[in-house]
Amino acid sequence: MKFENNLAFAQQLDSQDTLGHYQNEFSFPQVNGKKVIYFTGNSLGLQPKRAKTYVDEVMNDWATLAVEGHFYAEKPWWDYHERFANPLSKIVGALPTEVTVMNTLTVNLHLLMVSFYQPTSKRYKIICEEKAFPSDQYMFQSQVRFHGYEPEDAIVEIKRREGEHNIRLEDVLAKIQEVGDELALVLIGGVNYYTGQVFDMKNITEAGHKVGAYVGWDLAHAAGNIELQLHDWQVDFASWCSYKYMNSGPGNASGCFIHEKHHTNIELPRLAGWWGHNKERRFKMEPNFDPVQGADGWQISNLPILSLAPYLASVELFAEIGMAALIAKRNTITSYLEFVLHEIDREVKGNFEIITPANQQERGCQLSVFLHGEGRSLFDYLMKNGVIVDWREPNVIRFAPVPLYTSYEDIYRFGQILKTGILNK
């Protein structure tokens, strides 16, 4: 498509957008009395308006049924989480029995490492990417120390080549081969939070398995954003937060994937709790743990229904639309944002550098941009003028035009605000 940087063209794209009306499904903050242009769904998604209905339903059931809500609410609490199985499985490319909801992201990764990081004197190393999200880095360090190893020895970071912003697939595969028999686990962010690079999960998973390692993925920036086929790729495990692209609310419950090939492995360790116990016998209060067959068998505690309610509202919204439609719009609207950035860069004689891969197969809807010659003051200008973006040191602004609630007119108007902010500094 040949893009144009003008209002009429943006409005024409919006008139052809079959998902455009979904913007009305979300609540937008306001700045200066106007709805914001919201580019930070990669940090916290907007609130679906229907989320309040789902939360109110739980509150009303609690008020009128109290403890009986576990069994007699319209959506009984004791199996509330089972409503996520089908919609989540379609979002991440899994069987319904391979997904569950529980806890939060880093908690779940720690719990999954109990099962999938089993170091020995020979095979104890973990491969991750350079500049992984800090929570993952802290997790790796604490896990290897817990097992008696030093992070400097046990954690192997795959680094970017000098002068490059993204990690090459060939370097990931080469490092897996190099570590070889010492490698216990590959655990990488499916989409790098800083650059927005999407990793080739299929080939990396296959390479890890070839040397005898488990392979897991942190999908915080991937779930609800990119196409995933976790079952077919034979991924061992994965987890994701739900409050970014899936709009479940701040700090809300996480999702988990455990491949079905591990469901009946009684030798695989896990930390157990009663909500992972045989559903039909859970309330018999038996002393010995009999796990549910499937990802639900990794659950530990009674689930936080009030937290799950807005998450359920969102995944049902995803079920209405389907990932294929979201990805199709994502590709077009992210390309339009890329075009507008280049146009404004040319008009202001600037020096923007988009560090996210240009190849659509290697990115989702996030573009990370070095605004060379511009500083924090430009970020502050954008925020004060109703463009909500994300600043990362030393000088990167992350833009995420989420297809659920971003319009093409938003992209055009952002470009004009950006241009004014640079020319009038």
UniProtKB/TrEMBL annotation:
It catalyses: L-kynurenine + H2O = anthranilate + L-alanine + H(+); 3-hydroxy-L-kynurenine + H2O = 3-hydroxyanthranilate + L-alanine + H(+). It comes from the Bacteria. Pyridoxal 5'-phosphate binds at residues 105-106, 133-136, 218, 221, 243, 274, 302. Its EC number is 3.7.1.3. The keyword Hydrolase applies. The modification N6-(pyridoxal phosphate)lysine is found at residue 244. It is an enzyme of class 3 (hydrolase). Its cofactor is pyridoxal 5'-phosphate. Pathway: Cofactor biosynthesis; NAD(+) biosynthesis; quinolinate from L-kynurenine: step 2/3; Amino-acid degradation; L-kynurenine degradation; L-alanine and anthranilate from L-kynurenine: step 1/1. Keywords: Hydrolase, Pyridine nucleotide biosynthesis, Pyridoxal phosphate. NCBIfam families: kynureninase. Catalyzes the cleavage of L-kynurenine (L-Kyn) and L-3-hydroxykynurenine (L-3OHKyn) into anthranilic acid (AA) and 3-hydroxyanthranilic acid (3-OHAA), respectively. Homodimer. Belongs to the kynureninase family. PANTHER family: KYNURENINASE. This is Kynureninase. The gene is kynU.
